[in-house]
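Write out the 3D structure for:
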Amino acid sequence: MKNFAQIVFIFLFAFSNTFAQQEKGIIGVNNWLNNWTEFKPNTQDYGEPTQILTGKIALDKKLIKRHVYLLVGDVFVTNNAVLTIEPGTVILADYKSKASLTITKGSGIIAAGTETDPIVFTSNKTVKRAGDWGGIIILGDAATNKFGNGSVASFYSQLNPADYIYTNYGGEDVNSNSGLLQYVRIEYAGNRIKNSEYFNGLLLAGVGKETVLEHIMVSYSAGNSFEIWGGNLRLNQVVSYKSNNNDFKINYGAQCELANSLAIRSPYISSSAGPKCLMVSSYNKKEEIDFTKKLTAVSAKNLTLLNSSESLKEDIKMGLVNEAVFVGESASLDMNKSVISGFNPAVIFDSKIVINQHNLERIKFTDMYFNNCNGNIFVENNSNNEDLENWYGNHAFFNVYSKGPDAETFIDVASSKRPDYRLRINKIIASNEVDSDLRDN
C-alpha cells in the first residue's frame, strides 16, 4: 500500500509539472506545430502549375488537390461567391504579375486544410524571396472606428476604376462571416506597393466574429504577417515566422482575441522601420476616426514572442533588436500568460500615453514571463520606467523574470523540421523580482 501511494504521488507530481510548463506561452499537451507548419519553405518543391486563377471569380468555385494552381494578377472573389479549397491544394502566386487574392465584402473563402494536408500559398519563383507576390486580403462587413467605411484600393497598382467597389470593407454586422482559414500556409508574400508600403501576408479588414481563423502560418512576409483593421475576430494557433515587418498589427477599432499563437523574429532580416511582434493602435491619424466608435481592444493570451539572435547583446548594440510589443494611444491590451523573450525592451508605450490609473488599468500584463530582455516596460523615448516597473512588478500581477538562453527556456528551438517552442518543464521560477537589463553598466 505504501509503495502504491508513492507511485500515485510520483505520477501526480509528474502530471502537475507537465501541465505547469503549459501555463505560459503557447500551450498544448502535444506540439501543435507538428506536421502542418514548414520552417524551411524554400526547400519544398510544389510542382508545376496545371490550372490558372486570374480576374474575377463571380460564381462559387472549388480548387482541388490534384491540380497546382497559378494565381495571376489581382484576383477578386466577388458577387457573394465562395471560393472553396480542398485540403492539400497548392496555389503558386505569380511573381511577375505580383499576384494577390482578395475576398470581397459579402463573398467568402473556405480553405479547410488539415494537420497532415495543409493548404499552401507560395511564390512561383525557383529561389523564393520575401515580397515575391502580394498576399491575401479578406474584406468583411463588421465595424471599424473610421468615418464611413474603408477601402484597400491603394494596394493595387493597376486597378480598373470600375473595380473600386470591390475594395470596400466595413459595416455594422459584428457577426459577419467571411468563411474559414484552417491549416493554411502563406509564404513569401508582402510585395512592395510604393515607397515604404507593402502588401501583408494576410490582411483582415472589417472581418466579423463568425469567420474561423486558426492554424495559419505566415512565413517570410516582406510586409506585416497579419494585419487587422477593425472587425471583431479571434485568431487561434497562428504563426508568424521571420517577417520583415510586424508580426501582428492590429488597428482601427478592432476587437480582437489572439490566442495560443507564436511569433519568431530574426534581427538579421527585419526591416529598418523598427518592426514589432505585436503592434496595437486605434488609428494612424486622429482625423481618420470617429471617437464615438469603439477603439481597438486586444486580448492576447498564451503568446510566445521570441527574437532568435545568435548574440543578443551584440545585436542590440548594432540596433538590430526592437521591442516586442508597442501599445499606441487610446488602444487597450490585456496580455496574459505570455512569453516575451530576447527583445530590446519587452514593451514600449506610445509617448502620448500618460502613466495614470486609467491607462494602466486598460493596458494589462498578468502572469507574464519576461525572459532575456533589455529592460521590460517603458514609455517611448523615456529611459525612466520606475513607475511602470513598480506597477507591473507588483506581486498581484504574477509576472516573472528570467535570463535563460533559448536552448534552456524552450523545449526544442534547434530543430528546423519539428521545433517546439513550448516552455520547458519546471523552467518558470516563481520570482517576480524585476530583472536587470542587458545594458553595459
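Residues 22-423 form one domain.
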